[in-house]
Automatic annotation (TrEMBL):
Residues 65-290 form the Solute-binding protein family 3/N-terminal domain. This is Putative amino acid ABC transporter substrate-binding protein. CDD domains: PBP2_MidA_like. The lineage of its organism: Bacteria, Bacillati, Actinomycetota, Actinomycetes, Mycobacteriales. SMART domains: PBPb. It comes from the Bacteria. Residues 1-23 form the signal peptide. InterPro entries: Solute-binding_3/MltF_N. Keywords: Signal. The keyword Signal applies. It holds the Pfam family SBP_bac_3. It comes from Gordonia rhizosphera NBRC 16068.
């Protein structure tokens, strides 16, 4: 969660892997192929709900917009399509949320680890980048939950990686994610405590780079949020497969300034979309319905 051996290959196999790597590398700016969402153009139409919009802080209501910090690419949640527009499940849902609130969303890119500080400083009203809501982060900001994701490992097709016994293996992660800061360090410590080799964690600035490292055989496995891993496997055309089951499910949330009046407004807007079925429709459009939640809350961290 976002809190987040090099193989010697030759001939046709190397060429195939190179092609797959290029295809994956292009995810951030070209998602026009058939492997994208099942209904990428079927935007859910949402109307303003006055009683929910009335909950907005006066300054945001008067501005008519919601300034949203986002880090891309992180398919299928947020990334750029072939035209350079930021799209994804998170984007479609936030478009719907702002529709309920009668606001225009303004997406601004930022480094993932700089989004929460920018919210605290007032640069962004809210963050939207697959943030895991956890107790540590709740000391800094409040969260409005909207999804549930777990950790899912991937490996090259035909591999035999066990996420719970990966001592001595090379594992790719995106920098500053839950997998980077908590999951892999904990698993590695269990290895060394048992007298086994540590897990060699390789950090990458983007999820695309982590996925490409696995496709190219530079690592033995990768660990990412379950919807992200599922999407990478789907786009690999059989080069990648799951390694072990989904584990450590936790909520995604929108980070906002602690105590802000924006929290109840966002929570009511998300719940409205859940209750009327539009939330489910958006999730199904992107194939991530396994992570939908029945109730949005403020600060729903489980650990």
């Amino acid at each position: 969660m976002r809190y987040l051996r090099s193989s010697r290959l030759g001939g046709p196999l190397l060429a195939l892997i190179a092609v797959l790597a290029l295809a994956l590398a292009g995810c951030s700016n070209d998602e026009s192929g058939s492997s994208g969402p099942t209904s990428s153009t079927a935007k859910v139409e949402v109307s303003k709900v006055d009683e929910i919009a009335a909950l907005l802080p006066p300054d945001i209501a008067q501005s008519g917009k919601l300034v949203i910090g986002v880090n891309v690419p992180y398919q299928p949640n947020e990334y750029r399509d072939a035209s350079g527009k930021i799209v994804g499940f998170d984007v479609d849902l936030m478009d719907a949320v702002t529709g309920v609130l009668g606001l225009t969303p303004e997406y601004r890119e930022a480094d993932f680890d700089k989004i929460i500080p920018a919210i605290q400083q007032g640069t962004f009203n809210v963050g939207m980048s697959s943030f895991t809501d956890n107790k540590e982060r709740e000391k800094q900001v409040d969260f409005v939950t909207y999804f549930s994701a777990g950790v899912q490992w991937a490996q090259q097709a035909g591999g035999s990686i066990d996420p719970n016994n990966a001592c001595g293996k090379r594992v790719a992660v995106q920098s500053t994610t839950y997998e980077d800061t908590e999951e892999i360090p904990a698993k590695s410590k269990a290895c060394t405590d048992a007298g086994k080799p540590a897990i060699e964690k390789l950090k990458f600035e983007s999820q695309d780079e982590a996925t490409n490292a696995l496709v190219l055989g530079k690592v033995d496995a990768m660990s990412a949020d379950s919807p992200v891993t599922a999407y990478a496997i789907k786009r690999s055309n059989g080069a990648l497969e799951p390694a072990g089951p989904i584990a450590d499910s936790a909520p995604y949330g929108y980070p906002i300034v602690k105590g802000s009046e924006l929290g109840p407004a966002l929570q009511k807007a998300v719940q409205y979309l859940i209750d009327n079925g539009q939330y489910q429709q958006i999730a199904e459009n992107w194939g991530v319905e396994a992570g939908t939640i029945p109730t949005s809350v403020i600060n729903g961290a489980v650990s």
